[in-house]
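hi! just following up on the protien thing from before. the input was this:
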Amino acid sequence: MFAKNLETILARLSSRNDMSYPSDTDGIERFESLRRYRQLPQGRENRTRALTDREIASAVLGLIPPNPNWAGHSALILGDLRPVGGTNASFERTATLLDAITSLIASQRARQSLVRLQVSGAERFTNSSGSATLFFELDGQAARACFVSKMAISLSVPGAERGFDPDRLHSRMSREVSFSRSFFDDLARSIEIARSFRTIPEGDGSEYDLEEAREARYRKLGVQPGSNFLNVGVDNQVLWPSEETVVRFGQYTLVIMPKTKDYAPSVHVDLTANRLSEIEASTIINRFLSIMTWCTDGHAIAQDGWSGGPVPGAVSLRDLAFVTSLHWIFDRKIPNQVEIRRALALYREARNAEQNFMVSYAVLNYFKIIELKYDERNAVKNWFRDNFELVKAQQASGERFARFASLCGAEKPHEYIYRACRIAVAHANKHSLSDPDEAHELHRLHAAADVLHLCARHFIKSEFGVSDVMYSGN
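and the predicted 3d structure came back as:
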């Protein structure tokens, strides 16, 4: 039984599973996904390799998700579901759902006892997807075996199956795929015929074209076994390549991706190959953007990102939440006092800077709001000293202040705010070593900005009496 032949057989067996019809590429996409997740043989050279019963069972599980591109992921997760109550309560004493389906494919006796198999990718428990129920006959009596995530350790103990309710899902809606005995009988008969006669794979092998193109791209980008990429989006107006490009930057290798209709320009670093931590790689990316800014005299802002993927992942364009209201009421006036107008302007600039990852500027502007009224160093420090605990007490969660306290150490908060925040970002002498390329420094300033943001809001409300209600009339 070859993969391409199995694709045709499964398409036939599942052709009437719904009122709608699958797309012409449904089976192709499912098997491509299964190969990508190594559930089926990879590479054109393995096109004539006969499938094992376990590989055929994985392909059956690949039919579960409505989206064919999730077939491989689905087969991997669902195949590892474990029997409720342990193997003694399982079908044919199998250890996983994949083992149970393999048994149905390989054993006529197992198929004869089957009533039906129901499999769902829905969320069974919080953040835990996938479950199955196998109904069968045992010694002339109706029986069932339920399969859930291996993380549900309490359900793996003997006897757990007696109080288990298979219909109690965390998901409020679920799709379930039901396999009858005749499905497995027909599948087993097709496998037997294929293995009894010398056949060749169907088609011309074009199903491997996409896989080969993908592998060629990965080789070009330096993807290796064990790669772990940090992917960071970039907002920039510097000279940027129009196609995926690998560059050497010092002793490091970076992958640069261009902007497209759906994706932002981005920089990617293989943490494993470059022997870097995520923090160190973030600093290298910032150093690269600083060089690009200098060379082309345009802006380049590293945004957020993630790591953990084995290949570089394109970063989606930012589509931040936009707050609207059905009943939008506005009744405000332009403030009469110059100081209030400047305070609100500085506050907006600080929020814009923080939102756009220019945290040094945010820290400085939050601090400058306090300086509007207290223009002498000790007076500003005393305001933070006298109001810090008050601002902290007004917050429902103390998480921001706990992070900030860890930065301060033994130093008083008001002293730290002046020395390590205001002076650090406003000056560049030997006493101020703040480096906005250093990821550690950026994390520190973000923690400080969280607290200074709340202090600035408190200052504008308490010192200037500015309401934050849109229809206050002031």
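The mean pLDDT is 92.
Residues 439-464 form the longest helix (26 residues).
cheers
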